[in-house]
Amino acid sequence: MRPVIFKKAAALVLAVALLFSLCLPVFADSPESGEGSFFATGYTISKGRLTRGAATDITVFVKNVSLTADTFQPSNYDFSKLIDSFSGGSVSVEKKSTGSDPLELRVRFSKLKYSGTGQALRFQITPRDSGVPQLIELTIAEAGITEDKPKTDNDSPAAEPMVLISCSEQKEPLAPGGETELTVSFRNLSDLELRSPVVTFTPSDSLTIPGGSYSFLLDAIRGKQTGSVKVKIRALASVSSPNQSLQADLKFTYFNNVADAQASVSEKLPVAAAVSGSTAPPVVLASRSELKKPIAAGETAELTVTFRNMGSTKLLSPLASFTPSESLLIESSTGSTLLPDLEPGKSASVTLKLRALPEISSANQSIQTELKYSYDASGTMTQGDSSDRLTIPAAAASSSPGGESTEAPVPHVVVSDFSFGGESVDAGSDFELRFRFENTGKLPIENVLMMVDGGESFTISGGTNSFFYSSLAAGAGQEQTLPLQALPGAKSGAQSVSLSFKYEYVDAGKRAAASEDVRLSMPVVQPDRLEISAPQPPESLSVGEEAVLTLPYVNKGKGEIANVEATVEGEGIDTPAKTQYVGNIGAGASGSIGFVFTPQEAGVLPLVIKVTYEDANEKVQTKEFPVELIAEDPSIDAMLDDEFPQEEPEESGFPWLPVLGGTGAAAFLAAAAAILIRRKRNKPQETDAAWSEWEDTDSEPEDPGKTEE
């Protein structure tokens, strides 16, 4: 019998040990949690120019504002290079920052060999514990530049100048509502001069540019020189994602040894921001498949775009849309594609068929991707979106030499100044938008048609949204005033009005058409229309008596009132809850706030009820309501009523209770009369006021329920 028991006990011990060993990795704490997002801030290269087969060393500077240098261990991450324009080589990682500073790394790729096509360098960083990779992609501007050749009289048109766009480093992430200044630099890598360069900035959804000026005219940038401009950016009060960006589009004119030509270059500059709230939206990474060769004029190509959920929250009903650049078309029956729900770490792809126009103006073509989705943010369904720009290599058409006429640069229209009557616009109010637009080109423009689009926040008040101007000379400007109305339901924050210009110009006897789109940003605020009625104190109040004060409220505004809290302050009262958290009050909602209290002393009791909340513009508001309560001591009748409660008689039987009660009452009245007569004999000079003092000085009356035997 005992061997059987021992065998069963040994088997049970082994099973428990096996279960513990299997569960131990699950409960083990990871050394790294909340890795955040890695992004590249710049790079250095050992060679200035790269041709096919050239070897070089590239050092990429990587930053992660969610990690610190003292908690990061490179051995816990895998740095691996992906398929791109370079092959071979080895990778090494070195920490640049120290202590508790945000993490900065030097990722060095040694002995890379340039393939001769493209300018992309791609690698991914994968935590060894979670296995979720983060892709980092850079454009190496020095790749693909051919060796200089001696210039001859029969030179063909020069290649389009290459421009490297970079910005100054942020000291810390941009906080919600904060403002910072960035210096954006444009490095001319060619020997040609960039003339009349105009840069246009497009901030992401949670950023805005104070002042509303999004376009800037720079001085000419000579070969191998750098031009720069300082731009201020401001974060909205609610930042949806830590991965914000600033799109920089540079348009310029250059002489290609034959004639003046125009070109443009774009770059999305990363901006680190601090997310407001407890739940940040998921990070979505967009990538594309490789093209066998640059797409040429009139050709078609298939491109696969992949969206990967890099966050920890599921993407619900993701809707993808694509916008090609000016020389590309997407052959598709629908403009948007609905993707399946994306779990964290999962991907979904869309195949596009691209067609190039008969004339490709620039080798820098692209596709703008936008993914809109819903996600669960701490129990609340929230809308999110992610946009990215995918570069498409293209073979630009060359200009034929020997032409008799030289084409002038296309004139551009920019808004140089605008005002709207104040620092902000109240929702539901009318205002005038005054602005001045100018022709920055060297040719006059004709048949100028301007269209105004107020979007979801503004509308034209008593007028038309289209304006016509017969002509505008080179360098001249035109002022315009628009009567606008901010819609009552407009969202708080920076909202924009879009101006679309279409015009014609004549160059070398040929008439051509051009267009410009300009956005003017204005902050919109929702007026505070939360009405709270003052509380009405009770007409009569006794010490020890429970009473109630109520404050009716109604939200007449169009926005939600958040974090409503009421507090009562004062002495001489007792209340079960001096602070009440009401929560959020929706638009049009009403209700009341009630306080139950009991006076502890007689007299005038001053109280103050404070109500604090956040209005629709996320600003804290406080309203105070002073109240005076008058509490009295309880009366003698009330004390007698409390001391001698009346009991209901029974339905049947002899009425013993009334008889005994009457006998006791008679005895009580007789005793009271005897005491009163004795006091009057002792103090005949006293008045009837002694009767009120008799009950305080004498002993308690006998129980009326008892009778003398």
Attribute tags:
6 domains, 48% strand, Immunoglobulin-like, mainly beta, five-stranded mixed β-sheet, globular, 709 residues, five-stranded antiparallel β-sheet, single chain
Walkthrough of the structure:
The chain is mainly beta. Mean pLDDT is 80; it is low at 22-33, 146-154, 399-405, 649-654, 656-661, 663-667 and 683-709. Helices cover 10% and strands 48% of the residues. It is built from four helices and 41 strands. Strands 1, 2, 4, 5 and 6 form a five-stranded antiparallel β-sheet that branches. The chain has a five-stranded mixed β-sheet with strand order 26-33-32-28-30, with no helix packed on it. The protein has six domains: 32-146, Immunoglobulin-like (Sandwich), CATH 2.60.40.10; 161-276, Immunoglobulin-like (Sandwich); 278-399, Sandwich (Immunoglobulin-like), CATH 2.60.40.10; 407-525, Sandwich (Immunoglobulin-like), CATH 2.60.40; 530-631, Immunoglobulins (Immunoglobulin-like, Sandwich), CATH 2.60.40; 636-646 and 655-697, no CATH class.
